[in-house]
């Protein structure tokens, strides 16, 4: 059955940390007018058939025929309501992935959307589009950054139509700048062949990789910093400390830290909060946390400490560990991007939109 094939490749790719971290990525399958799409907040690694939402493809298609308000909140609320109305009758208590409308645009049986650091080394780089065209030619569609949700789906809809008019065939490979990759095929084997071909081509030209081994750090200072974080955040806080060589490199001074200050993609914002904090000494921590909270309305999760490296702080083990994992991914992206002209960060406008976007807020809570 098609749902069994969908669960199978979702678990396969979802359990590969080179491809998927935390609740990232999504998958879908089409069977006539029915599309099965990953539910928001579920994990590909262990998703079952019940974790997918059954949608009406014809009702989703109607969304692209409508005109929505220019106001962000009104547009997203109305398009979300129409998306929820496209669920089939026995799916009322499920919520489809935020990228459901984008999945619906590919006229292929299976669609895979991932955010691997290796791929995002290109999508989050200054020369990314040029590099993508050199590696993949006309087979790849490049989408410049824009607001997620309906705006992104509509932009992709128009671009996919233009591609078909120009080349006489449907696109099956799309790169979203500062986001990730979409691949589509009518067979599961074909999907895998395309994915690993893309990964292999990028790896063949990516000479620089992040050093994630433990670096040389100041152990006494690291313990003092850890204790101070406990005092500032309280006894209920959970701290994940990772003195990797790459984190120590970015923590060596403010200039180095600024290279990874701005976020690269939505997942980084959802799981790590938008901006890390740079600390030189333990005496700076309390004021830095208060200033961050007053400015942003929430506490920071990621800290870079000179001579110590990366600290991730949350109020649950899962939240702390996931934040650390996702920011390690961000550092990998930054290094991979050096192979393609240097890092290209997400704009402040898009960052603010995602911070306040209801759909991503829902996903992070799951």
Can I get a quick summary?
The protein is of the alpha+beta class. It has helices spanning 2-14, 57-63, 72-84, 100-104, 117-123, 128-136, 150-167, 188-205, 219-233, 245-250, 254-257, 266-272, 285-296, 317-337, 348-355, 358-365, and strands at 26-31, 34-38, 52-56, 110-114, 141-143, 173-176, 180-185, 238-242, 277-279, 302-305, 309-314.
What does it look like?
- With 366 residues, the protein is of the alpha+beta class.
- It is 47% helix and 14% strand.
- It is built from 16 helices and 11 strands.
- The protein has helices at residues 2-14, 57-63, 72-84, 100-104, 117-123, 128-136, 150-167, 188-205, 219-233, 245-250, 254-257, 266-272, 285-296, 317-337, 348-355, 358-365; strands at residues 26-31, 34-38, 52-56, 110-114, 141-143, 173-176, 180-185, 238-242, 277-279, 302-305, 309-314.
- The strands form 2 sheets. A 7-stranded mixed sheet has the order 3-2-1-4-7-6-5, with helices on both faces. A 4-stranded mixed sheet has the order 8-11-10-9.
- Helix 12 runs antiparallel to helix 14.
Topology:
Layout: H1 2-14, E1 26-31, E2 34-38, E3 52-56, H2 57-63, H3 72-84, H4 100-104, E4 110-114, H5 117-123, H6 128-136, E5 141-143, H7 150-167, E6 173-176, E7 180-185, H8 188-205, H9 219-233, E8 238-242, H10 245-250, H11 254-257, H12 266-272, E9 277-279, H13 285-296, E10 302-305, E11 309-314, H14 317-337, H15 348-355, H16 358-365
Parallel strand pairs: 5-6, 9-10
Antiparallel strand pairs: 1-2, 1-4, 2-3, 4-7, 6-7, 8-11, 10-11
Helix pairs in contact: 5-14, 12-14
Query: What structural class should be given to the helix and strand makeup?
Result: alpha+beta
- Biggest sheet statistics: 7 strands, mixed
Please report which band the strand proportion falls in: under 5%, 5-15%, 15-25%, 25-35%, 35-45% or over 45%. Answer: 5-15%
Radius of gyration, taken over Cα atoms and rounded to an integer in Å: 21 Å
Share of helical residues: 40-55%
Q: What is the number of helices?
A: 16
Q: What is the topology, as strand order, of the major beta sheet?
A: 3-2-1-4-7-6-5
Q: Helix and strand succession?
A: HEEEHHHEHHEHEEHHEHHHEHEEHHH
Spatial shape: globular
Q: Enumerate the spans where pLDDT stays under 50 for 5 or more consecutive residues.
A: 358-364
Question: For the residues shown, what is the average pLDDT?
Answer: 94
